[in-house]
Amino acid sequence: MSIKMSNTELFKRYLLFIISLFCTAMGVSLAVKGGLGTSPISSVAYALSLNTPISLGYLLFIWNMTLLLLQIIILRKDFQKIQLMQIPLSLIFGWFTDFSKYIISADSVPNHYTVRLILTVVGMITVALGVTLSVIANVVLNSGEGFVKAISDKLHLKFGNVKIAFDISCVIMAAVISLILSHKIQGVREGTFIAACFTGIIVKFLMKTLNKPVCRLLNIKN
What we know:
The radius of gyration is 17 Å and the shape is globular. It is built from 8 helices and no strands. The chain has one domain. The model has no long low-confidence stretch (mean pLDDT 92). 76% of the residues lie in helices and 0% in strands.
């Protein structure tokens, strides 16, 4: 960020960002419990977690670190050192994911489809809330958005178009990984496409609704 801030405001913003990480992690775990697929950005790690003994949280951390490394390779001297904060924040997000999976018993999937669909939708809304709070916090990009922005800036492409291509690529990779490891598609279902279509719309609505109240509550300016 280029705006000079007091230590107090910076603390408030990072605290809000950490809260956003917990919301996002809880949303991912709710989607996992629903068993109808996770969001595109989480689908690669989720597909791997279904076919290996490694936890979803740890795999999400590895995935985020891969995206951070790609940002550094793409941007080189244009890479902003503040974005290295993605490392500890991604570690916290991974821990939050495993913790939230544990407290809601995410590995126990309900039998009734309606319940699973409700869990998936609630998970999507919770993820959207997390994304909204991270945007309001405005301190550091998450690794997925950072990677998309790096490509967008380097190739002079529209961020939205690159984001769509990235989401599609994640879904394809998740499908290929699950086919190779289990000979069937896992982790990519209707919930994945619901999240891809509606998360952005919900974020826009929540930004309009929450931006000013949250900024007033924390006494910060955006």
